[in-house]
Amino acid sequence: MERIISVNRIFEKEYCHIKQSSPKRTWMDNTKSKYAYRCLPMTIANQASWDVLCPSNVEFDWSGDDSTQSLNIKYSNKGDDCYEFASSLFGYGIITFHVDFVIKTTANTSIYVKGPANSIKHGIQPLEGIVETFWLPFTFTMNWKFTQPGKTSFQKDEPLFTFFPIDLEYLESFSLETKNLSDDNTFFNKYKTYSDSRSEHISEQVADWQKFYMQGVEPFMENKIPAHKTKINLKKLN
Questions:
Q1: How many domains does the chain have?
Q2: Are residues 213 and 142 in the same domain?
Q3: What is the pLDDT of residues 72-81, one digit of tens each?
């Protein structure tokens, strides 16, 4: 069954562009030999969503007061064609972003809305939400909250937030159980092999990269895990 995320534009002009999330992060690029990209779970998380991009440069200044008036918003292109996509609805240093589209999804599929994965913005924290887009005939908002009084800004085409589909009924179908690792002898032996190999690699201070997880293989095994991924190929917005 084909799964569809339908992006329905409100205006003739498209303000908030959408694109596949990039695996790249500036702070990861700046690590020695780009070492941070060796963490495949983090790199996969970076790209497991679509980005909603900022329509124009905008600056925010929060005085620290709880009132809605304590947050000042300044657009760089203030004029007749300025889409005022940010507001102070709640106070408490919360920035609310408004999008120019309504998302519609197939049955039981909601949208998880959050800040860009593994991105850092000083003095401000993205808030997360799950929107039931399979029935909601209206748009949604996304919020960031200042962690301390001060200033911040978003630049044109910087990701305001990301989203990805989630099935809450599927999530609710799972149960958690606790077992002793040694109860499953086969799994325990695999764990021991992996653990011993990892400990030996660290103790010998080998400069090379072990790469077992990156390659999707268990130590001393040649066969790769069939469903293992080193990147995600999300579809472009049509």
A1: 2
A2: no
A3: 999 987 655 6
**Statement to judge: residues 184 and 90 lie in one domain:** no
Question: Can you give the residue range of the structural domain that contains 220?
Answer: 176-238
**Cβ–Cβ under 8 Å, residues 207 and 195:** no
Q: Could you tell me if 12 and 84 lie in one domain?
A: yes
Q: Are residues 60 and 151 in the same domain?
A: yes
Q: What is the pTM of this model?
A: 0.89
Straight-line distance from the first to the last Cα atom of the chain, in angstroms, rounded to the nearest whole number = 19
pLDDT tens-digit series, residues 107-134: 999 999 999 999 999 999 999 999 999 9
Q: What is the C-alpha separation between 58 and 54, in angstroms, rounded?
A: 9
Q: Are 143 and 96 in contact (CB under 8 A)?
A: yes
Q: What is the phi/psi pair of residue 52, to 5°?
A: -105, 120
Locus of tokens 């908030």: 16
Percent helix, strand and coil across the chain, each to the nearest 5: 20, 30, 50
